[in-house]
Amino acid sequence: YMEEASAYVFYVDSSCFAEELEEVKQTLMWLLKHPKLSKKPLLIVANKQDLPGSRTPAELLQELGIDRMDL
């Protein structure tokens, strides 16, 4: 099904713990490097923004290392 997808969506829990976010980062990096997905559009959704202490989308991008990537 990955070959036929036009794009993909990646949901991130904005309120997750730092150690969970590291696993999210590893999964996201795997997806970005996957040959069947590497050239397809990606939408990252910062879920649970309404919870106290949740990260902003900018904070998530920084913590996931997206802000430093040459995509």
Give a quick rundown of the structure.
With 71 residues, the protein is α+β, with helices and mostly antiparallel strands.
- Strand order of the main beta sheet, please? 1-2
The percentage helix is: 25-40%
Number of strands: 2
Unreliable sequence segments: none
Instruction: Report the sheet-strand fraction.
Output: 15-25%
CA-based shape:
elongated
From N to C, what is the helix and strand string?
EHEH
Secondary structure elements and pairings:
Elements: E1 8-13, H1 18-33, E2 42-47, H2 57-64
Parallel strand pairs: 1-2
Structure notes:
By secondary structure, this protein is an alpha+beta fold. It contains 2 helices and 2 strands. The protein has a two-stranded parallel ribbon. β1, α1 and β2 (42-47) form a beta-alpha-beta unit. The longest helix is centred in the middle third of the chain and has 16 residues, at 18-33. The mean pLDDT is 86.
Main features:
71 residues, single chain, 2 helices, two-stranded parallel sheet, alpha+beta
